[in-house]
Amino acid sequence: MGKFILGVLIGFVIVACVGLGYFYFGYAPAATAAPPMPLEKRAAKWALSARIKKEMPNGTSMAASETNLLAGAEMYKRDCAVCHGLPGEAKPSNIAAGMYPKPPQLWKHGVTDDPVGETYWKVANGIRMTGMPAFKANTSDEAVWQVSLLLANADKLPASVTAALQQPISAAPANPVSAPSTTHMPGTK
C-alpha cells in the first residue's frame, strides 16, 4: 500500500511539473490571436457564473426612467462603446477586434435577458483576463446602475435615449475622478 501511495504522489508531482513547465517555458498561448488553452473558456465561464450568482444584487431601487437611461447612455458612449459598440454599427472598433476574448457587441447580442443585477456586477467589478475593467473604483454607484439599466432595457428604449446614443459624447464627463495632470515629459512643451 505504501508503494501505491508513493506512486500516486510521484504522479501528482510529475503532472504538476509538466503543467508549470507548459507556462514557464512559453508553451501556453498568451497573444490575443492565439487559440484558447484546453478547457480555458469552460473554466472561465464556470468561475464567472458562480461568482456572479453568489455576489450580484437581486435588483435595484432605481427606476428605468428617461433621466436615468439618458445618463446611462452618456456613460455607455464614453466608457463602453469603444469595446461593445453602438446601435447600428456594422462592425466592432479596431480596439474590440484586437481583444481576446472578443467583447460582445451589446446592441447585436444584448444583455436584456440578463438580470440587471448581473449586468451591474459585471460593470462594477469587471471580468478578469478579458479586458473588461471594473468601474466601481472610479465611477459612482448611481452611474453604474444607470448604465446597467440602459443595457437591461436596450430593446425598449425611448426614442430620446436611442437618439442620444447616436450623438457625440458630451464635452464634460459626468463623473470626473480628478483633474488631469499638468506634468510634462522631459523634452516636451
Largest sheet: none
CATH architecture of the domain at 64-166: Orthogonal Bundle
- Quick one: how many beta strands? 0
Distance between the termini: 76 Å
The averaged pLDDT comes out at 88
How would the global form be characterised?
elongated
What is the CATH class of the domain at 64-166? Mainly Alpha
Structural class: mainly alpha
- Calculate Rg over CA atoms: 22 Å
* Count of DSSP-assigned helices: 7
How much of the polypeptide forms β-strand, as a percent range? Answer: under 5%
CATH superfamily membership of the domain at 64-166 = Cytochrome c-like domain
One letter per element, helices H and strands E, the order comes to HHHHHHH
- The percentage helix is 40-55%
Low-confidence stretches: 178-185
CATH topology of the domain at 64-166: Cytochrome Bc1 Complex, Chain D, domain 2
Word description of this protein:
By secondary structure, this protein is mainly α. The protein is built from seven helices and no strands. Helix 3 packs across helix 6. It starts with a helix and ends in a 23-residue tail after the last helix.
Briefly characterize the structure:
This protein is mostly helical and 189 residues long. The chain is built from 7 helices and no strands.
Properties at a glance:
single chain, 189 residues, mainly alpha, Cytochrome Bc1 Complex, Chain D, domain 2
Chain-wise SSE layout:
Elements: H1 2-24, H2 40-55, H3 66-84, H4 94-97, H5 116-125, H6 141-152, H7 159-166
